[in-house]
Each structure stands twice: as C-alpha cells, then as structure tokens.
Design goal:
InterPro entries: MetI-like (IPR000515), MetI-like_sf (IPR035906). Keywords: Cell membrane, Membrane, Transmembrane, Transmembrane helix, Transport. It is a multi-pass membrane protein. The structure is a single chain. The protein is an all-alpha fold. Helices cover about 80% and strands about 0% of the residues. The protein has eleven helices and no strands. Helix 3 packs across helix 11, helix 4 packs parallel to helix 7 and helix 9 packs antiparallel against helix 11. It is elongated, with a radius of gyration of 24 Å. The two termini are about 45 Å apart.
Length: about 270
C-alpha cells in the first residue's frame, strides 16, 4: 500500500518536471530520446548497418571528413553560397514586397506573375540555372536567391497589404507626411511579417542550396551528399544531413533572436 502511494506521488512530480523543462532542457531531452532509440535499433541489428548506420559510425565518418579537410572546405563553400543567395533574395524580396504592397500599378503588373512562380520548386530550376549561368557559382546563387526571394516577397507583401486602416488614419490626422507615415507607421506595422519571411527564407536557403549543389558542383555539402550516395556511404550521408540540420537550426535561432529585438513592440 505504501509503495502504491509513493508511485502516485511520484507520477505528478515527474510530469511537472517534464512539463517545466525549459531552455536547453527540452531539446536535450528530445535529442537524448532519439539518440537512445537510434542506438537501440542499430544495436539490435534490426536494420543492416550499410542502410541505417549507428551513431558511432556516423561520428567516425564526421571525424574522418574533418581530418582530411573536406568538411571544413565544404562547410565554407556552402555557407558562402547560402549567405550570398539569401542576401540577394531577401533584399529583392523586401524591396519588391514594399512596392507591390503600396503601389497599385506595380501590384497589378507583377502579382499574378509572382504568384505563378511560387509553386515552382527550386530543384526544377536547376537545369535552367545551369543553362543560363553555367556550372559555376552563378547557378547556385540564382537557385537560392530565387527561393528566398519569393518567400520574403510574399510575407512582405502580405504584411504591407493588411496594415490596419486605423494606423494610417491616425497618422494622417496627426499631419504626418507620406514619407514619415511610410517609415514610422507602415514599416513597423509590416515588420513582423517581414521578419517571419526572412526566418522562413533562411530554412529555404539551405533546402534550395542542397538542390543546387546536387548537380553541376564539385564542392559543398550537397555535392558531398551526392558523392556519398554513389559510394553507398550512408554514414557520411547521415553526418552531412545532421550538419545541415544543425546549421539551419542555428541560423534560424539567430534570425529569431534578432527579430525579437528588432520588432520588440510585438512581444507578448
């Protein structure tokens, strides 16, 4: 009887501890659970190691790539391509989104065409990019910037289009000029949508980067994935996928952190 009471007391405490885990606690708990499950599946031999490698073999493959220098080189190349493509796409997306959101003529001319482009996946543009820009860096920048541009444009345009009329009426009643209204009312009101578009654009930059590097590349994480597939090195494939995920998550957190500070009036 005493043991049963102790179990009943312990269960709520355990549930409260899991629910109260914050900060790094929840990610560590999640990763620990997945890692434990991964180790258990591979140790039990349920799937052949050549198809589903163990965490130890993935770690050894990572060390191997780091030791021969390919990992550092590929990381630098991919990060440069993602950064340049993201920069070009985000600048064009924000600029055009501001214009289509505020200028009726530009909106009428461009919105139908841009809406038509949005469903086209990045990987479908790789052959066109290679024909236009060759197999050099230009084709990679184009694919990444195209994907980021459409996402950032859509979010910026959406934010500009749905600014509450009361904000505009209030600024005009106070005698604000068009320029002041745009800088101090319109941009701050649309800023949360713009930041959300940039954050989504970061994730899509890495997705489209891999698509661009799978063809016509001789370096980069996407190229190394293709090479690992040809040699059936699933340990390297898992390692590269984990690295890509960690990179994307880190940059996403950085953009989210920066956005919370730039758009501080939206907190809460």
């Amino acid at each position: 009887m005493d043991d049963a009471r102790q179990v009943r007391r312990t269960r709520p405490l355990l549930a409260m501890g899991l629910a109260g885990a914050t900060g790094l606690g929840r990610p560590l708990l999640s990763f620990g659970f997945i890692l434990t499950l991964w180790v258990a599946v591979t140790a039990a031999g349920l799937v052949p190691q050549q198809i589903f490698p163990s965490p130890l073999s993935v770690w050894q493959a990572t060390v191997e790539m780091a030791a021969n220098g390919t990992l550092a080189t590929d990381l630098a190349v991919s990060m440069r391509r993602a950064a340049i493509g993201f920069g070009i796409g985000s600048v064009l997306g924000v600029t055009l989104g501001l214009l289509t959101g505020r200028v009726a003529l530009i909106r009428a001319l461009l919105n139908p065409f841009l809406t038509l482009l949005r469903p086209i996946p990045a990987i479908a543009l790789v052959p066109v990019a290679i024909v236009w820009f060759g197999i050099g860096e230009g084709s990679k920048y184009f694919v990444v910037s195209y994907t980021v541009f459409l996402t950032v444009w859509f979010n910026t345009h959406h934010g500009m289009e749905y600014i509450p009329d009361i904000y505009l009426r209030a600024s005009r009643s106070l005698g604000a000029s068009r320029l002041r209204e745009f800088l101090q009312v319109v941009i701050p009101a649309a800023a949360p949508h713009i930041v959300a578009g940039l954050r989504l654009g970061v994730a899509l930059a890495f997705l489209s980067l891999v698509a661009a590097e799978l063809s016509g590349a001789s370096s980069g994480l996407g190229y190394r994935l293709q090479e690992a597939r040809q040699y059936i090195r699933t340990d390297r494939m898992f390692s590269l996928l984990i690295i890509l995920g960690a990179l994307g998550a880190t940059v996403d957190l950085a953009v989210h952190w920066l956005g919370r500070r730039l758009v501080h009036w939206q907190q809460g």
